[in-house]
Amino acid sequence: MSTSDYDPACLPDLLPLYYRRLFPFSQYYRWLSYGGVTKNYFLNREFSFTLKDDIYVRYQSFSTQNELEKEMQKMNPYKIDIGAVYSHRPSQHNTVKSGTFQALEKELVFDIDMTDYDDVRSCCSAADICSKCWTLMTIAIRILDRALRDDFGFQHLLWVYSGRRGVHCWVCDEAARKLSVAARSAVAEYLSLVKGGEETVKKVVLSDPIHPFISQSLSVVERYFPQYALVGQDLLSSKESVDKVLSLLPEDILCHSLHDLLNLYQTEKNPLKRWDKLKAVVHHKRATSKKGGQYFEKEIMLQYCYPRLDVNVSKGVNHLLKSPFSVHPKTGRISVPIDLRNLDKFDPFEVPTISLICEELDKPRAGEEEEDDTKDKENETDPGERRKIRDYKRTSLAKYIKMFDQFLDAMARSRKGEMLKKSDLQKEF
Amino acid sequence: MQFTGRRRKLTVHPQNELYGHCLQLYGQPPLENISLSEFETFAVERLKLLKTVENLGVSFVKMSEQYSKKLHAEISGLNFPFRPEVDESSLSKSQAGPSEYEKRRKDHISHFILRLAYCQTEDLRRWFIQQEMDLFRHRFTDLLPKYKTEFLHRNNLKYDTMSLEEKKKLSDQLINSSYGLSGATIVEQDFYKVPFQDALDLVRTRKVFLQGGYAYIPHQDIVTIVLNDFRTRLSKALALTARSLPAVQSDERLQPLLNHLSHAYVGQDYSIQKNIGKVSLEQIDALSAKSFPLCMRQLHKALRDSHHLRHGGRMQYGLFLKGIGLTLEQALQFWRSEFIRGKVDADKFDKAYAYSIRHMFGKEGKRTDYTPYSCMKVILSNPPSQGDYHGCPFRHSDPELLKQKLQSYKLSPSGIIQILDLVKGMHYQLACQKYFELTHNIEDAGFSLNHPNQYFMESQKLLSGGKDIKKEVEMPQKVQENAAANGASVQPQPNTTQAEEEMGDLDSYFLDE
After folding, report:
1. Closest Cα of chain A to B173: distance in Å?
2. Which CATH number fits domain B15-152+226-261: 3.40.50.300, 1.20.930.80, 3.90.45.10, 2.60.40.3080?
3. DSSP of B30-59, one letter per residue?
């Protein structure tokens, strides 16, 4: 059996092992406690588990890391979702007066799913992905990450592969966690450019002036467009796909230059040059006609490449989202953080499956060199914890947990910075 | 003549400082004494204004030319302030109509009265904040630039401005973030730097430049931040008001009035039975299919099917039937004949249910002649729970079930889609109105629906070929009815304009001393 082969039927056997020896509970608890700054932050957080046969259990909550660990090892959830921090313990939501149990805070989250791109990718459809269309996720991450940092001023963004066909973003800054529903929806709408459903053909319409956010996003799209869309997706290769692109052009341009456009399709074989000529023909027409189609090439590029957000996921404070390090039951892949420094190299098919890491655990140790690695820590951590650290370090999960650690360290540093600033301010009095 | 002197004196009263600008943030509550009748008139008229704001917002694009024009007409028609400056000449009594000062006072006081009435539940607060914000946006936008600036100064609204250097550095981005900006206007105009959370409307539509979590707002769009300030203050104030409400509610003169204000729609209350005795019990089945709004049709069907209705249903349906003209005797016969076909025998009915029906007609207990529920009351208060059939089907039904019901009533698929869209947008009354239009085969109902009995009346009018129009129009507006009947010491006669004026003068006289 090849190492990455995953059989969904084995999941019930693998999950106990994963939750007992590999799941990074201490980092997980560290993340959701946020330094213990706010009282009961972890305690009032909703978790929901999907158990065998799609049994869905909402409003789980845990008072300590230990309790969470015990419960997860007992239930062995197929999938874990994270919800909001509530006014009361979610596990006791039935005991408080209705109306007083309210979702107070949650990370600002984004969910991008490849199925939303079905009308603009030719390589796969529905739940399938390939390395070609994965570029769309790369573009989405680049655009959203920049905007969330530069425009909205957020710093602590955790990008996670969903385990199957998409990515999630957890914006963990304190300000982001405190955003109201109205603010979340405003942010999501600011970031949405592609609008309309099956009944809409032209889904991106730009108007003057082009907002800096759009220009910035365009510059990302422009970088990927030729190679991804023109070459990779054969955007202008078949009659069918050319027609689809032409349907995005304004009526009058189409009427006047259909001949030219079809001509270019016959004479020019190189897709990149075809695109250039298409632009040239339309620009020429633009000069003679009065209005419309001013931004046609930009609009086409955006329609084909711009991130498509599931706005409803971002809007609700109480909306649940699949947790990092949860297993995807269909693919067996672990939902792992994505390293933005090597974003272009991220390959979803290289993400370890639960069967792979469990297998790695069973393999005899390659060498004892890791022993040195943990030696200096041995005095601080208890033996159980130490054994667990050694466990995951022997698997391909190690580098992702390390990334998660770095993310948590950065958050801890800025929390410390904030506290110093605050106490400095107090000293002035 | 002497009164004129007193008036003049009054205008230099410290309170006057409060009314120096035609728009205010309602930071200070009014401290003067006012008569109960003035209290009521003010409240009712502001409610009317807010109701108009709501209706206009549904029918027109907010802040469009038509919207602004109509709203402006309503504001001036109801004597709320709209002039930027106090017109000195109108301060003298000789001028017809209330002075600008009086209008501002009314704006101020009426706002605070409605706060009391609308702070009680989340739904009420949301409605009130929404309408007050729309009203404020219109009024602020309507101001000339110089009064806008004055308003900011007066209310101590200071926002961080960008330095010229900063502006120059970001000029390209700023130009491309808002309409109608150029390099020159950027230098001239102030730009305010606020956290993006304070300018969500601009962020949402990408009409502002964002950097590092801050929105850079040109002066031309300042209404957004002022409005945000207004909302924050108002929602905080309402939360505080709600906490101190018990003290106000212990005042037996105010309590029924405030309840009435928050529950009832201002306008016809359909309690006067002009058409009393015009409906026979045999007609009800046919009428329920033809002329009942969906909520009542649903209740009628439930009653016929299960021979019972729970309290909420009996109240909503019973008062509606009273409103369409059933006499007490008819009502008793109607309910008894239906109930005894179920689990209730005649004896039990007389003991347990007849009382509540007589009560409804004001023949028992405190003898309140209860008024039929308005749409607002049906939609906002007492939502149905297990076993209940009352409430508004557009508000309280599952959309899928509503769809099935409408299909079974043979509404066209396109009509159903329209209704469901309105429901989705929370325009329940408009959805009902659309239902009226579809079931009566007319293009435009030509009225704005806000009462189940209004629905019935309009339907009858239409079906009988408009014979009854004249009589219906004559039905007097009687808003004070409930409070008056409750024995509160509010002027019972609607025709008290003169008396009110005297009272007002008297009050100011005492205040002056």
Report:
1. 6
2. 1.20.930.80
3. P-S---HHHHHHHHHHHHHHHHHHHHHHHH
CB A106 within 8 A of CB A318: yes
Task: Give CA separation, B145 vs A28, B18, B152, in Å.
Answer: 54, 21, 11
CB contact B180 to A (< 8 Å)? no
Task: Mark whether A297 is an active-site residue.
Answer: no
A211–B179: do the CB atoms touch at under 8 Å?
Answer: no
User: Tell me, what amino acid is at A278?
Assistant: L
Lowest mean pLDDT: which of A198-202, B138-142, B385-389, B487-491? B487-491
B22 is in an annotated binding site: no
- ipTM value for the complex: 0.89
| Digit-coded pLDDT (tens) for B217-276 | 998 889 999 999 999 999 999 999 988 888 887 888 888 888 778 765 444 556 665 667
Q: How many CA atoms lie less than 13 Å away from B252 in the CB half-sphere?
A: 4
Which of these ranges, A111-125, A178-192, B265-279, has the smallest mean pLDDT? Answer: B265-279
Alpha-carbon distance A366 to nearest alpha carbon in chain B (angstroms): 48
CB-CB: which of B172, B204, B210 is closest to A151?
A: B210
Structure tokens given for B410: 């043979």
140-179 of A, contacting B, C-beta below 8 A: 150-154, 175, 179
Shortest CB distance from A211 goes to which of B177, B197, B211? B177
Q: In what order do the strands lie in the sheet with B214-218?
A: B160-161, B191-195, B214-218, B209-211
Q: Distances in Å between the alpha carbon of B140 and those of A199, A305, A406, B76, B84?
A: 39, 42, 50, 15, 10
Q: Where are the domains of chain B?
A: 15-152+226-261, 156-224, 268-507
Contact B203 A215 (CB under 8 A): no
**B375 assigned binding-site residue:** yes
Q: Provide, as residue numbers in chain A, all residues whose Cβ is less than 8 Å from the Cβ of B186.
A: none
Q: What is the pLDDT of residues A188-215, one digit of tens each?
A: 999 999 876 655 677 888 888 899 999 9
Interface contact B250, partner A, CB < 8 A: no
Look up the pTM and report it: 0.69
Among chain B residues, the shortest Cα distance to A216 is held by: B173
- Examine the residue annotation and report whether A424 is marked as an active-site residue of this protein: no
In the residue annotation, A251 being an active-site residue is answered as no
List C-alpha distances in Å: A69 to A39, A73, A85, B151, B305. Answer: 21, 6, 19, 58, 54
* Contact state of A153 with B214 under an 8 Å Cβ cutoff: yes
**B205 contact residues in A (CB cutoff 8 A):** 189
